[in-house]
TrEMBL record:
Major localization listed first in the record, in broad terms: secreted
Name under which the protein is recorded: Neutral metalloproteinase
Enzyme class, first EC level, given as a word: hydrolase
One Gene Ontology term, aspect cellular component: extracellular region
Organism of origin: Knoellia flava
Assigned keywords, A-Z: Hydrolase, Metal-binding, Metalloprotease, Protease, Secreted, Zinc
Family to which the UniProt record says this protein belongs: Belongs to the peptidase M4 family.
């Protein structure tokens, strides 16, 4: 069994990233679907994600005595699961009311029981297949909260616990329904304690990929499915009955999971020639994960049998081995090949399967080297999903009085993109005055010096007169300024 990173940071994991299962382009599509209920729920999900980020930042900051704030359950004293499920009751305060603890009987709430069972199935995979004692390999208690928010369209790991929404009931159903979604989110916790893959660009896509891999393996093991028998679908149980699609993602055939008027068409690529080069969604972490996802599927189906025993063991060796947090696709491919060779030999079936898979998805060439001759392949640009274009604005006035201001919000937990160009004289008087004051002062430039944080919103402000072009991290914004920006985006 490969040694984990516990020796280097046994009590303080690498920085947690708050990760949700619903890709940002889906929430963006729902927020502009033309159906009021769906739009309202998607926007409320995004609003709650922003508030949750702020709460997370407070809870995980250092206290004066240096102790980290945490909602973790007590660590298990033996190698056995230690589960606690809470009910938020439609609110957003975490963890909520405790409704079921380890060893207690089932309740009359299906979501509670599904969450409890899903936590157990996930713990069982990591322990039985890889000898891992919970997410941190030290008996970390598994905490979950159900019924978060009102028809909240997501589920997420926040660095300490799992949180499940009930979905909008039309397009997205209750998030405890899907075992692979539970396994996916908890795998973000394992990544937090092992490889610590940065949630940005190719490393971020690998972060999402690792969660999809171990999420599908949780489902396969619980159902007793071989690689050939699995549907290789992530979130198949989440889509409503009238949605034109089968799941949130397909690891077997990225880009084919759905094609629905409200969701759009699945944009995931399955080959590096279709890599999506974008600044949104932390560099396309939910989209480009389709490429390594397909590579894993190819390895698993080539080897056959139980995917968690052969392909999964290779991937586990990589994420708990000598991997850097900024790992790219080509480096990850090389690490998986090295792990296969170390365990089975240079000419083994495992090594050949790994080499062939990465070549088939264009990450490496047929000899195993990085495609394009380097470890960082320059992707072929492809457009990320964007809202319908808005009419061209009128020219900016030539004088010194600001007339047009563009505000753009990107990132955030869900990666939604919103953009609006407005004339100040069309805004309410108070907002127009506030904008003129901001644009004429050094405040925006000072705020732009704040540190960019993964999963926080980023606000871009540009204006020709006076010349302003800044990007500001949401945590750096005073509440009044952020509210001004949001009102302007809604104008």
């Amino acid at each position: 069994m490969t040694t984990t990173h516990e020796t280097s940071h046994p009590t303080d994991p690498r920085p947690a990233v708050r990760c949700g299962i619903v890709p940002p382009y889906l929430l963006q599509a729902l927020a502009s679907s033309g159906e009021p209920h769906l739009e309202e729920r998607a926007r409320e999900t995004l609003r709650l994600d922003q508030l949750r980020y702020e709460e997370h930042a407070r809870e995980h900051s250092l206290r004066p005595d240096g102790a980290r704030v945490s909602r973790r359950a007590n660590r298990a004293t033996t190698e056995a699961p230690n589960r606690v499920v809470h009910d938020a009751g439609g609110g957003t305060t975490l963890p909520g009311e405790k409704v079921r603890a380890e060893g207690e009987p089932a309740t009359d709430d299906t979501a509670v029981n599904e969450a409890y069972d899903g936590l157990g199935a996930t713990w069982d995979l990591w322990n039985a297949a890889y000898g891992r004692n919970s997410l941190d390999d030290r008996g970390l208690g598994l905490v979950a909260t159900v019924h978060y928010g009102t028809n909240y369209d997501n589920a997420f790991w926040d660095g300490s616990q799992m949180v499940f929404g009930d979905g909008d009931g039309v397009v997205l159903l209750g998030f405890t329904r899907s075992l692979d979604v539970i396994g996916h989110e908890l795998a973000h916790g394992v990544t937090q304690y092992t490889s610590g893959l940065v949630y940005q660009d190719q490393a971020g896509a690998l972060n999402e990929h690792v969660s999809d891999v171990f999420g599908i393996l949780v489902k396969q093991r619980a159902l007793g499915q071989s690689a050939e028998e699995s549907d290789w679908l992530i979130g198949a149980e989440l889509l409503g009955p009238d949605v034109k699609g089968v799941a949130l993602r397909s690891m077997k055939e990225p880009g084919t999971a759905y094609d629905d008027p409200r969701l759009g068409k699945d944009p995931q690529p399955g080959h590096m020639r279709d890599f999506v080069d974008t600044d949104d969604d932390n560099g396309g972490v939910h989209i480009n994960s389709g490429i390594p996802n397909r590579a894993f599927h190819l390895v698993a189906t080539t080897l056959g049998g139980n995917a968690w025993e052969r392909a999964g063991a290779i991937w586990y060796a990589v994420i708990t081995g000598d991997i850097k947090a900024d790992c790219d696709f080509a480096t990850f491919a090389a690490l998986t090949e090295a792990a296969a060779v170390a365990a089975h030999g240079e000419d083994s079936e495992e090594a050949r399967a790994v080499r062939d898979a990465w070549a088939q998805v264009g990450v490496t060439n047929e000899t195993g080297g990085a495609a394009g001759g380097g470890s960082e392949r320059e992707p072929a640009p492809a457009p990320a999903p964007t809202p319908s274009p808005e009419p061209e604005p009128s020219p900016v006035p030539a004088g010194g009085e600001p007339g047009l201001v563009q505000v753009r919000r990107t990132g955030g937990f869900a990666g939604q993109v919103r953009e609006r160009t407005v004339r100040l004289d069309e805004l309410p008087d108070d907002d127009a005055t506030a904008w003129r004051t901001l644009l004429a002062s050094p405040t925006l430039m000072a705020l732009a010096q704040g540190r960019m944080i993964p999963d926080a919103f980023r606000y871009g402000v540009s204006c020709d007169v006076p010349p302003v072009d800044v990007t500001i991290p949401e945590p750096a914004l005073p509440e009044g300024v952020r509210e001004l920006f949001d009102r302007t985006l809604e104008a």
